[in-house]
Amino acid sequence: MMRLLLGFAFATCACFVYVRCTDSNAQDGGIPDVIDYNYHIRPILSDRCFKCHGPDANKRKANLRLDTPEGAYAAFKDSPSMHAIVPGNPEASDAFQRLITKDTSLLMPTPSSHLTVSAHEIKLIEKWIQQGAVYKPHWAFIKPTKSALPAADEDWVRNPIDYFVYAKMTEKSLKPSPEASKEQLLKRVCLDLTGLPPSLDMQDRFLKDDSPQAYEKIVNELLGSKHYGEKMSIQWLDLARYADSHGYQDDGLRTMWPWRDWVIHAFNSNYSYAKFVTWQLAGDLLPRPSKEMLLATGFNRNHKITQEGGVIDEEYRVEYVNDRTNTFSKSFLALTFECARCHDHKYDPISQKDYYSTYAFFNQVPEKGLFGTIDASFADPPNMSITTKDVKSILKFIHKKDTASVDVMVMADSSKRRPTYVLSRGNYDMPGPEVGVGIPKSILPYSHTKYGQNRLGLARWVLDPQNPLTSRVFVNRMWAQFFGRGIVKTVGDFGMQGELPTHPELLDWLAVDFQSHGWNIKRLVKQIVMSATYQQASTVTSESQQVDPENIYLSRMSRIRIPAEQIRDQVLASAGILNPEIGGPSVKTYQPKGLWEVATSGRGSLMNYIQDHNQDLYRRGMYVFIKRTVPPPTMLIFDASNRDQCEVQRGRTNTPLQALVMMNDPHVLESSRVLASQFSHEKGSIEEKLTRAFRRIVCRAPKEKELAMLKKYYETEQASCVQNPKKVQHLMKIGEYKQDKAAVTGSTAAMMLTIQLIYNMEETIMRV
């Protein structure tokens, strides 16, 4: 009877997206001597079994639970002599027998699910059962520990990171790549730490410095740059879903840019991650909170807000709280709490009650789902007002350009506690049992006495030394920022459906080291960029391509296209027209006509796109105005976030539209014009000028063949321009940057087109 019931249960399992979560050992032909539940077995069960036999009690089939040892070892209710798993005895384990049976009516997973378990995976499960079927907590829920450094080539390693990387390379029969050239290394570290290309002066200084400390001196200089905070902030703005409009259909203006100024200031000032987290989660709840602490809490209010009349107030208020809850879990824990909004999580030990217990922390804000109509408020309450006096005294990092005060949304808790209920199916109007504040105990039990019952208590829990996730999640995100891929590839999902770490010992070592050194972000960043791993060349050898095509084991440096904002910065900076201002209101730069107008609701100050002028046109990409319903099209083409919700990792695409942008974007053409005009007044041969242009844009000297091709192209375009004066006039009028009338010549136009060609080289927008 039980076999039939189990067969029916599996047969009725719905098909679902198959996400691989396996260690490389599960992919090769060898069976490890010791089978580890987290690295060999859980991924298989999570992919193939947990949807119907996992944490979600409402969807569990046949009352069988395989994600816990208690459930897997238990006798079947209707057949006490049978067990799904019998430690040490695969033949008596019904779940294993279902994997190997030839009877399709009993086979698990069922043929109708379109899921299969490979022969290799079956051998892993069999050996695991033979070895006692030992369950472990999910790897990410086990507190990280510092392991001893493995053996490595002492001539290659430069800091502890390299020991772990070298050991894994050796295990995979790989060897490190040679060190990158000084030109490549300088461009790489400049783009990674400031988001800007090195100037010719910096290039010359570094190339002439033969001292052993030359590279470290550059790293220290970049870490001290005011532009370091800008580069580091971009990823955090994606996480915090920062935008300059409220979202939804009306999509009116909001003034959250002072919070962005604070984020830049925090990174530049090297606030510890503990301080950075605490102030953003609960700065308003600290004893005697300063205005800076209050401003930091704007992190929680960056979500979309409706301004459309006729909406149901409570429905949208609940959506705001959901957004804050989901953003918290993704940003600090890298867990998909949102999956438990309507039901128990199907894969991770997060119940619906756990979700609403976390939700309760963010459910005390005295806010409304709808506060006034469009343009009635650029900062819905609770908010704070920033005056000129504030900027001159305590908020000196705010770049306020006029005398009017600026209102910014911040967090506050009501004086009277709002009760929180489990919402049936996630619906705002279907309250169930009341819950208090809490966090899934599978991560770290939440003690009301130890931590407190508000967001400040939540911040204390997040930063508790026993918390297994916080430091791991942050160092992994930093790693992904520099290597293009995290040690855990799924940067936003450390749950059971996420990828396993490729270098678990390294991840844990970094996590513990980060905590034990005061959560020092600049120290962590310097550790990474000073490693031999980071300083490798990015050249792909046939051997590494065959063994490790995705560069998982880091036997070379990754080649990454720079982020959308930096592509704009690269163009403007290399032409010498970038406005280096830090912070301040967002700017509206060149954009195709009519985009806002076709998507507007017909109301509000953002109904029409009104372009800015003068120096505002040449500000960094991170300051370009983001209207959620119509994000900046050029940056969207290069995979920038639309800031609709928390985004932990941007996609990376390669499309023809990107080439069209580089060939036709007004800023690319304008920068080419300005740089060509500058060269028209400089002495030197065409070869010398092309070399200077190439170094400013690509950040290295051109090879002889490259220079010859550029010169030939220049000569061809020069001949064309001499015969076509109208073409010259047209080219030299592109963009609003002041025109140099003395440079309106065929030679300058030809140089402009040649510089545009350099901007269109792949290497220009690649960090190699």
Q: Can you summarize the main beta sheet?
A: 2 strands, antiparallel
Which whole number gives the mean pLDDT?
93
* Low-pLDDT segments: 1-28
Radius of gyration computed on alpha carbons: 29 Å
Summing up helix and strand content along with how strands pair, one would put the structural category as: mainly alpha
Q: What is the count of β-strands?
A: 8
Strand % is under 5%
Report, as a whole number of angstroms, the end-to-end distance: 62 Å
Number of helices: 32
- Order of strands in the sheet with most strands: 1-2
Q: Helix share of residues?
A: 40-55%
Write down the oligomeric state: single chain
**What best-fitting shape do the alpha-carbon axes yield?**
globular
Domain DUF1549: 160-365
Organism: Aquirufa echingensis
Protein name: PSD1 and planctomycete cytochrome C domain-containing protein
InterPro entries: Cyt_c_Planctomycete-type (IPR011429), DUF1549 (IPR011444), DUF1553 (IPR022655)
Q: How would you sum up this structure, described in words?
A:
This protein has 768 residues and is mainly alpha-helical. The chain has helices at 2-11, 37-48, 50-53, 69-73, 94-100, 119-130, 160-171, 182-193, 200-208, 214-223, 226-239, 257-268, 273-282, 291-296, 313-333, 352-359, 388-392, 448-451, 455-462, 470-483, 504-516, 521-529, 542-547, 564-575, 595-599, 633-637, 656-664, 666-680, 686-698, 704-723, 725-731, 746-759; strands spanning 75-76, 79-83, 383-386, 406-409, 420-423, 431-435, 560-561, 766-767. A two-stranded antiparallel ribbon has the order 1-2. The chain has a two-stranded antiparallel ribbon with strand order 3-4. The longest helix is centred in the middle third of the chain and has 21 residues, at 313-333. The protein starts with a helix and ends with a strand. Mean pLDDT is 93; it is low at 1-28. Residues 454-714 form the DUF1553 domain. Residues 49-109 form the Cytochrome C Planctomycete-type domain. This is PSD1 and planctomycete cytochrome C domain-containing protein. Residues 160-365 form the DUF1549 domain. Pfam families: PSCyt1 (PF07635), PSCyt2 (PF07583), PSD1 (PF07587).
